[in-house]
Design brief:
It contains three helices and three strands. By secondary structure, it is α+β, with helices and mostly antiparallel strands. The protein starts with 9 loop residues before the first helix and ends with a helix.
Length: 78
């Protein structure tokens, strides 16, 4: 995201839309996302979208977040 357009919620809106689209497909049971540990804006977007930290990926040097279908449905019903 270009700096001039950051902090307007565009990334969060885009990620929520993509997650919703993914869960329209019954085969999708979990959405998985990776980012670098120091990318706080990316981490904030994932957390705003309901993804939960599940650990570090040593071979990729990233951190992993997941959103299971059941959690997505629970968040959508709130």
């Amino acid at each position: 995201m270009l700096e001039a357009h950051q902090r307007n919620g565009y990334c969060t809106e885009a990620v929520r839309t993509l997650i919703g689209w993914a869960f329209q497909h019954r085969a999708v049971q979990t959405v998985v996302a990776h980012t670098l540990p120091g990318l706080m804006p990316s981490i904030r977007v994932m957390e705003k979208c309901g993804l939960l930290f599940v650990g570090e990926e040593d071979r990729m040097q990233t951190i992993r977040y997941e959103l299971p279908r059941a959690r997505f449905q629970a968040l959508a019903s709130q």
